[in-house]
Amino acid sequence: MSTAGGIGTAQETAQRPEPGTAPPAARVRALRKVFGRVTAVDGVDLDVPAGSVFGMLGPNGSGKTTLIRMLLGLTRPTSGSVELLGLPVPAGLPAALPDVGALVEGPGFHPFLTGRENLRRVAAVEPRLAARDTGPAVDAALERVGLADAARRRFRGYSLGMKQRLGLAAALLVPRRLVVLDEPTNGLDPAGTREIRAVVADLRATGATVLLSSHLLSEVEAVCTHVAVLKQGSLLAAGELGRLLDAVAGGWEIATTDPGPALRVLREAGATARADGPGVLVEDGPDGPVLFAALVRAEVPVHGLRRHRPDLETLFTRITES
């Protein structure tokens, strides 16, 4: 399903705010959704900072898509409150949704129409897109997602990745304040994934907030400023990505041209260390200044010392398996 709206011309789009300096683009409090005996979302409190690229992470069945659907008014919560662009959901949806572009649970288009014809049908109901601007807006959106050459092909002949691109194009027909993408790289090859990354970066640079869910942790780490981790409907962690990674940082990365002597000195100092690329990784032991002093006394050249920060996959595993 794809939803669409707009905020006027690109010239009217505000410059990107620093995350945290403006009211949240989306906010939920004590949000809960129950389907029969299954609790899909369980008491979630979450802010999506304006101007951020916010990654929603979690195993299958963690509640990501259900939470996104409640944000957009597609699913009614069992309890709790939702705000979208500062307006309550569902009462404020008529005013908020024109400023929101979304691709949720795959795009829905007419199979016997071409990509361009489908997109023109979507553009025709854009509340902030004048009829005279429909053609140029459609062409620009197709070009932006790499479908200009396939615009005359029927939708039923599109690959999964091409269908995802067309859904993204529908969400980007006009400038947005908030773009919501549920698994936007599903079915895309590596080149297509890189293109989506570029689109997300461009959206943030022009002032939009981007909320996305993905199973590709490396892509989330490459584009997201903030993340939330869910499991079985509960929110386990949320915040600025760099701070979350720093919070679980451990050990030290030491850059040296003599890893052999460095390992000997570090182990004598009580550290657990191993060679790691161009230097040495200390996994446990004395603090960094103590290790640095021991290396200097032993006349081992040290070109750098920094706290070892894990990648997002390591952080995700620690949070979800703890």
TrEMBL record:
<dbReference type="InterPro" id="IPR017871">
    <property type="entry name" value="ABC_transporter-like_CS"/>
</dbReference>
<keyword id="KW-0067">ATP-binding</keyword>
<dbReference type="InterPro" id="IPR027417">
    <property type="entry name" value="P-loop_NTPase"/>
</dbReference>
<protein>
    <submittedName>
        <fullName>ABC-2 type transport system ATP-binding protein</fullName>
    </submittedName>
</protein>
<keyword id="KW-0547">Nucleotide-binding</keyword>
<dbReference type="Pfam" id="PF00005">
    <property type="entry name" value="ABC_tran"/>
</dbReference>
<comment type="similarity">
    <text>Belongs to the ABC transporter superfamily.</text>
</comment>
<dbReference type="GO" id="GO:0005524">
    <property type="term" value="F:ATP binding"/>
</dbReference>
<feature type="region of interest" description="Disordered">
    <location>
        <begin position="1"/>
        <end position="23"/>
    </location>
</feature>
<dbReference type="GO" id="GO:0016887">
    <property type="term" value="F:ATP hydrolysis activity"/>
</dbReference>
<dbReference type="InterPro" id="IPR003593">
    <property type="entry name" value="AAA+_ATPase"/>
</dbReference>
<dbReference type="InterPro" id="IPR003439">
    <property type="entry name" value="ABC_transporter-like_ATP-bd"/>
</dbReference>
<feature type="domain" description="ABC transporter">
    <location>
        <begin position="26"/>
        <end position="257"/>
    </location>
</feature>
<keyword id="KW-0813">Transport</keyword>
